[in-house]
Design goal:
This protein is α/β, with parallel strands linked by helices and 336 residues long. It has two domains: 191 residues, Rossmann fold, CATH 3.40.50; 102 residues, GMP Synthetase, Chain A, domain 3, CATH 3.30.300.10. The strands form two sheets. Strands 3-2-1-4-5 form a five-stranded parallel beta sheet, sandwiched between helices. Strands 6, 7, 8, 9 and 10 form a five-stranded mixed beta sheet that branches. Strand 4, helix 6 and strand 5 form a beta-alpha-beta unit. Helix 1 crosses helix 7. The model has no long low-confidence stretch (mean pLDDT 95). The structure holds xanthosine-5'-monophosphate. The site of xanthosine-5'-monophosphate (XMP) has 14 residues, from loops.
Length: 336
């Protein structure tokens, strides 16, 4: 018997590459989760990303409504993203899901803050506070579910050895003293590709388990500098058009990460024969295996022209579209 809850991946653990191996893993974890949790409740921050979605699906299979999912909409989600999480988990998987629209809390705190690391800290800290506020309203919760995966464990080991991270990432670690839960981390020995196979074996849609990564601070680090609601709105709309066009031409399946960035600069343009000052929308589309280095996807010009035409016609406040051709290094994937 392989111990899927060991702290280090056992050598005899086969790479989960097909549904048979995934189902064996799922059966073992369902049993382990039930044994660990008993009749208590498990709380989970469900962002809608691959890892938290797969943990949620696994926990729903194991303990049904004893899992309480909290989806915090920090107002920095992509277009229709929070609605999609609610639809999938509450309506289709019948999950016990609390949806919190905390847009105003986040945007009010972020007003006027332009330093990227300060923005990240504010978003990370407020995320924990909103989540903790919800947790305090609940009774009978003894466990916290987390979408920790094996690379996170390897990364913590590296950090413990004194190697510094370039950007601070956030998750729900660091909850206040009065909210200390035992952790349920059923994916902690899996690599990302294995998480996806397990997700599909659990019945999650292909598009959900193969979705591109999205940073915890969300559009907050793509609306460069001090975030304003109008520029954030323009970014969200332009990003939705980029994603729609990538879906239409098959690039969404191929490119590792693609998104729009909107800086706080205006240039002069012309619309309806009048001067039209607007922000540029910057397209970033990169491929990588480990996010440590990345190359730029060569998007065919006809696709680019269509995206330019749509964004400049449909998005209020955008009057130019630029393409970032910088590999990592020297540019990081995100602009902040
Ligand atoms: P960079 O910009 O460092 O990004 O080249 C590498 C990968 O990490 C993601 N990223 C983040 N993810 N919180 C996250 O959860 C963050 O603060 C954060 N910053 C960057 C980025 O989207 C890319 O996939």
């Amino acid at each position: 018997m392989i111990d899927f809850n060991a702290n280090v991946r056992p050598e005899e653990m086969e790479r989960i590459v097909n549904f048979d191996l995934a189902n064996a893993f799922i059966d073992a974890q369902v049993e382990a989760i039930r044994a660990q949790v008993g009749d208590k409740k498990v709380l989970l921050a469900l962002s809608g990303g691959v890892d938290s979605s797969v943990v949620a699906a696994l926990l729903i299979k194991a303990i049904g409504k004893q899992l309480v999912c909290v989806h915090v909409n920090h107002g920095l989600m992509r277009k229709d993203e929070s609605e999609g999480v609610v639809k999938m988990f509450r309506d289709e998987l019948d999950a016990n899901l609390i949806y919190v629209d905390a847009t105003d809390r986040f945007l009010d705190l972020l007003a006027g803050v332009s330093d990227p690391e300060k923005k990240r800290k504010i978003i990370g800290k407020e995320f924990i506070e909103v989540f903790a506020d919800e947790a305090r309203k609940l009774e009978g919760v003894e466990f916290l579910g987390q979408g920790t995966i094996y690379p996170d464990i390897l990364e913590s080991i590296k950090q413990a050895e004194g190697k510094q991270a370039v950007k601070s990432h956030h998750n729900v670690g660091g909850l206040p003293e009065d909210l200390q839960f035992a952790l349920v981390e059923p994916l902690k020995l899996l690599f990302k590709d294995e998480v996806r196979v397990v997700g599909e074996a659990l019945g999650l849609p292909h598009a959900m388990v193969y979705r591109q990564p999205f940073p915890g601070p969300g559009l907050g680090v793509r609306c460069l500098g001090a975030i304003t609601r109008d520029r954030l709105h323009a970014l969200r709309e332009a990003d939705a058009i980029l994603r729609e066009e990538f879906d239409n031409c098959g690039l969404a399946e191929k490119v590792w990460q693609y998104f729009v960035v909107v800086p706080d600069i205006k240039s002069v343009g012309v619309k309806n024969e009048s001067r039209y000052e607007g922000w540029p929308a910057i397209i970033r589309a990169v491929n990588t295996t480990d996010a440590m280095s990345a190359t730029v996807e060569e998007i065919p010009y006809p696709v680019l022209h269509k995206i330019v035409a749509r964004i400049t016609a449909e998005v209020e406040g955008i009057n130019r579209v630029l393409m970032d051709l910088t590999p990592k290094p020297v540019g990081t994937i995100e602009w902040e």
